[in-house]
Amino acid sequence: MASLRPLDQISTNQIEIPVYNNTNQAEQKQYQGEDDNDQFDYSQRAQWLRAALLGANDGLVSVSSLMMGVGAVKEDVKAMLLAGFAGLVAGACSMAIGEFVSVYTQYDIERAQMKRDTKNRNGNTEESGKEDESEKEKLPNPTHAAMASAMAFTVGALVPLLAAAFIKEHKLRLGVVAAVASFALVIFGGVGAVLGRTPAVRSCARVLVGGWVAMAITFGLTKLIGTKGMEV
After folding, report:
1. pLDDT per residue over 164-205, tens digit each?
2. Does residue 38 lie within any of the structural domains?
3. CB-based contacts of 147: which residues, under 8 Å, 6+ apart?
4. Residues 190, 204 contacting (CB under 8 angstroms)
5. Measuring CA to CA, which residue among 89, 76, 137, 139 is closest to residue 111?
6. For residue 26, is it within any domain?
7. 40-69 pLDDT tens trace
8. How many domains does the chain have?
9. Backbone angles phi, psi at 148, to 5 degrees
């Protein structure tokens, strides 16, 4: 019959102590989400964000300033709306053509660089082909960029046009155009700050002051020309 060993002779190596992870899974996901947000590269948004905000701001400031300038010497609402509409069409076409030419130039440069890299690349031909296809997908699209710029300009330009369309009183119409344009500038600046994770107050103030300066200069110079007796 086997003899019983004393308790102090029992090897502790044979005892397994289970360890449970009590960390809250929800907290882990929350922390992981915060880390992902902190590690996100917001510079990837820079290209399309710049094009969209630039187009919208240009449309808003250009057409608002143009309407304010016409309103400085003409009280007729039709004159303001006609000038604003002409500015919308001309500006949208200008933005589209300029963006198309600019992006197409960038496309040609990157395409030529890809061809040079393909010639100088050593290794598996199949892998090189896959890399070329992947790089081609990342190339900028001039047509899409042109359409986006034109649409953004149009959206910004419609703001002062719609604001002045139904106001007959001259001074009130000028005030409404300036107020609505200022409000839209703050919105555009805030959207850009949120999407780009930049200081909101600084962004809004920069956009707003720039719009005010453009409208004030256009209104002042046109008013000055009108009071000097030059035919408009």
Report:
1. 998 989 999 999 999 999 999 999 888 878 877 788 898 889
2. no
3. 96
4. yes
5. 139
6. no
7. 444 444 556 666 777 888 999 999 999 999
8. 1
9. -65, -40
Q: Cβ neighbours of residue 181 under 8 Å, at least 6 residues apart?
A: 60, 61, 64, 159, 160, 163, 211, 215
Amino acid at 40: F
pLDDT at 30 over 50: no
Residue 187 CB partners (closer than 8 Å, separation 6+):
none
Q: Residues 138-156: what's their mean pLDDT?
A: 86
Q: Which residue has better confidence, 123 or 82?
A: 82
Write out the residue range of the structural domain in which residue 155 sits.
47-227
- Residues in Cβ contact with 190 at an 8 Å cutoff, skipping those fewer than 6 apart: 200, 203, 204
Q: How far apart are CA 4 and CA 158, in angstroms?
A: 95
Query: Which of 33-37, 85-89, 225-229 is least confident?
Result: 33-37
